[in-house]
Design brief:
globular, mainly alpha, 129 residues
Length: 129
């Protein structure tokens, strides 16, 4: 695995952890789009890898299905999982220092951005079929 890929995975893990600790959202909101757009993974592989990160708490059976279909990158998932813990700590500390209204605005902005990116990507995929 290239050093640049490892750096991207670490950043994804920390950012997903920060967002999770900051607003209580699952890391998949960050992990899936990051793996698709920053590392060129397929949607299914990104989803499988993201579920691997969250394996024990929420997705053991879903991970099993993605694993059987060959759609999990175990190395990527391990790196993100470890750094997700660090990011969760940082995000929770940050969120507790800000007012709930500010946290809501930040969370809404992130969700709007990710939603538009995913919808445009899906639309472009449909028009290119």
């Amino acid at each position: 695995m290239e050093q640049q890929t490892v750096i991207i995975l670490v950043i994804v893990g920390v950012l997903a952890g920060i967002l999770s600790g900051f607003v209580g959202v699952g890391g998949g909101v960050i992990i899936v789009p990051a793996l698709v757009y920053a590392l060129g993974m397929s949607q299914h592989s990104a989803q499988g890898t993201s579920l691997f990160v969250l394996l024990l708490p929420v997705g053991i059976l879903a991970v099993h299905n993605y694993w059987k279909s060959g759609n999990i990158n175990w190395k990527f998932g391990l790196i993100i999982a470890v750094t997700f813990v660090v990011g969760g700590y940082i995000g929770s500390k940050l969120a507790l220092r800000l007012s709930p209204a500010i946290v809501k605005l930040i969370f809404g902005g992130i969700m709007a951005y990710v939603s538009v990116r995913m919808m445009l990507s899906g639309y472009n995929g449909l028009t290119n079929e």
